[in-house]
Write a structure and sequence with these properties.
It contains 3 helices and 4 strands, in the order βαβαβαβ. By secondary structure, it is of the alpha/beta class. Helix 1 runs parallel beside helix 2. It starts with 14 loop residues before the first strand and ends with a strand.
């Protein structure tokens, strides 16, 4: 049975980083993975829609955090990967 990860601890669940996670296909995938018990890092350019998406995935039971990010900026993507590893202990897959 999956357990809730604490900051900096490894989780038994899968960990997904989803770009465009605040709308469209990215949000649809986030919803599905949330229902399946994945921990999520949602990335998009605007904080407001990200927070709304996070509230929805958290309502499905997913531990979720958001990172405003421009995916075409290499430094921001490196930062997102590092933050995700710090938070969940690993990154299992990236949905771009």
């Amino acid at each position: 049975m999956p357990f809730r990860a604490e900051k900096g601890r490894m989780t038994e669940r899968g960990v997904a980083v989803i770009t465009g996670g605040s709308s469209g296909l990215g949000l649809s995938m986030a919803r599905r993975l949330a229902r399946d018990g994945y921990a999520l890092a949602l990335l998009a350019r605007q904080t407001g829609p990200l927070e709304t998406a996070a509230a929805e995935t958290q309502a499905h039971g997913a531990e979720t955090f958001v990172l405003p990010c421009e995916v075409t900026c290499h430094d921001q993507m490196i930062h997102a990967a590092q933050e995700t590893r710090t938070r969940f202990g690993r990154v299992d897959f990236l949905i771009v």
